Amino acid sequence: MISCVTRGAAETRSLGAAVAAVAAPGDLIVLAGDLGAGKTALVQGFAAALGVARPVTSPTFVLANRYVGRMVVNHLDAYRLNGMAEARDLGLPELLDDGVTLVEWGDVISAALPASRLEIALGFGAGPDDRSVVLTPWGPSWLERRAALGRAVQTWRAPVRAGGAPAEPEPAC
Ligand SMILES: Nc1ncnc2c1ncn2[C@@H]1O[C@H](COP(=O)(O)OP(=O)(O)O)[C@@H](O)[C@H]1O
Ligand SMILES: [Mg+2]
Predict the structure, then answer these.
(1) How many CA atoms lie within 13 A of 169 on its CB side?
(2) Element (H, E) at 26
(3) How far is C-alpha 3 from the geometric centre of its chain's CA atoms?
(4) For residue 58, pLDDT beyond 90
(5) Which residue stretches of the chain are H helix?
(6) What pLDDT score does 170 carry?
(7) Are 147 and 173 in contact (CB under 8 A)?
(8) Domains in the chain with CATH codes
(9) What angle do CA 139, 143, 145 make, to 5 degrees?
């Protein structure tokens, strides 16, 4: 678990860009968090960092958007899905084969998604523009990138942000 705090949407977009730097085709990123937590903001920074020029908008009404940058970025929103059957109808295996896939409200359809994933849970913080961003890698592919991921998001690591003191570097695992 890698705990971060962002202060403002621009920081969440930058954090998304930092995550993109360690992402690879075939990756699944599951985003959890209430409406307005910053899931779409994170995806915007992620896609922009991969050279996606088209503006990334919430896919609430289309279920899935496909962007092409240095790799394909699939952006899904599970909020509107009526249960697991519809989630399975999305053709997830094909999507997942084609670039990197980010699913907002992915926790809602968790069981329909592969276990190997990076979970990112966003939550509201103390101030109106503060957000907690907790990254949890699951499966060997993400676990072997855990140290790189921690370094990529170092700027926003919670101990630094909360206490103002330099964070202890985490032991590589
Ligand atoms: N630290 C922050 N991170 C992300 N968004 C923030 C932050 N502070 C304020 N905001 C605002 O919160 C809203 C987040 O919206 P959005 O990314 O669409 O959330 P979600 O997709 O989770 O519903 C935006 O209006 C954004 O400007
Ligand atoms: Mg959204």
Answers:
(1) 7
(2) none
(3) 13
(4) no
(5) 9-20, 39-49, 83-89, 92-97, 140-143, 146-152, 158-163
(6) 58
(7) yes
(8) 2-162 (3.40.50.300)
(9) 130
Q: How confident is the model at residue 167, as a pLDDT? A: 52
Residue 65: CB atoms within 10 A of its CB come to: 18
DSSP H or E run through 109: none
Q: Whose CA is nearest to atom 11 of ligand 1?
A: 9
pLDDT tens digits for 131-151? 999 999 999 999 999 999 999
pLDDT score for 110: 86
- List Cβ neighbours of 21 (8 Å cut-off, separation of 6 or more): 49, 152
Q: How far is the CA of 133 from the centre of ligand 1 (A)?
A: 12
* Interatomic CA distance for residues 154 and 19, integer angstroms: 11
| pLDDT (tens digit per residue) in 25-51 | 999 999 999 999 999 999 999 999 999
Q: Is the predicted pLDDT of residue 65 greater than 60, yes or no? A: yes
User: Which residue's alpha carbon is at the smallest distance from atom 27 of ligand 1?
Assistant: 9
Report phi then psi at 137, rounded to 5. -80, 135
- The kind and range of the H/E element at 123 are strand 117-124
Distance 60 CA to ligand 2 centre (A): 7
